[in-house]
Protein: Ferric-dicitrate binding protein FerR (Iron transport regulator)
Amino acid sequence: MMINEKEALTLLSKYNSGTATDTEIKLLESWYSAEILKQSLSETEEDFSHLKDEIWAGTLQRANLTEEEEHISEKRPVRSIKRWYQLTAAAVILIIGSVYLLNKQQTGENSLSKTLEIADHITAGKNKATLTLANGHQIILSDDVKGKLAEEAGVSITKTSSGELIYTVISKPDNATPSGSVYNTISTAAGENYQVVLPDGSKIKLNAASSLKYPASFAFQKDRRVELIGEAYFEVAKDKNHPFKVKTNAQEVEVLGTHFNISSYADHAITNTTLIEGSVKVSSLSYTEGKERAAHTILLKPGEQALQKANNITMVPADIEQATAWTEGWFYFKSTNLQDVLSEAAKWYDLEIVYRGAIPTDRFTGKIPKTASLGKFIKLLQLSDIKFSIEGRKMIIN
Structure:
């Protein structure tokens, strides 16, 4: 839901008086994020100063202070005031309101301007992938490729004009070539995502830097097994006689027909599985003498998420909107640490992230469209005092 400035001011008044609901606070935060992260920030300093002043005044009021007390207290160092303000800011909106003007002034500096100019030329990812057939032949799935691509194991493989790979069963595969031995792999590089429709009608959307290995046909197979590296969103077609199983490096997820998301990147210590509807069984995998076995299994209900680190799985309430935001074309951060924020940026903008010195402990909240250039994305970083530069495809964090 979008709100205008008049509505935002009304919510701001409620926030400062302590009567705003959680929903109203979220609306206000979203409005600020949207305003600040617009591609062309044409607003003058005065346009935001009255909002900043209202936020600051409200913060002082909630702490039983006044503007006059702040100005006449010469014994109180400025640094301690700023530190107090950071500690008492209960919502991201306060952080955004207080640092926006400072960062706007800093954009005039040559080094930052140069960095932003470079970043603006690094564009967002595309709907693209590479299909590897069972015979090793590779097909680049770009906007230029359309129509029938191949036929194997009794299945026709076509690419639609909307950028979707579809497998259609046209005949039963020859028994001399069991369908279970004919595997295809669809993979995305950094800055790519893609959707595939399998022969059973299941839809899988693949996030950047991910791959999915699957049989060209599920004919004559007891289970519908696929293997995932990275992240994917699954809409599994119902078939109670043939369970759908997703294997990652650390776990196996078994379903009959449901919607769920799995994130299992090698550079993330935690694999998470989020259930949107239906039910799933999540099992951590261990290996003894080269043999695979389920070490720990839990059942998820809609709105739950399984977090796995090593062989340990815990179940927590899921934030469905955040977990699936990427499928709708959004980055969505909620008190997300800098490393995880930049990990997503690296995959989508094809970047190498280099940290020099201690890694900042800043956390970020906000939504950014994935169609935005890197220049727009890093405006989120400007809301903190993080120093960074860009050299080609390398982002250096100091």
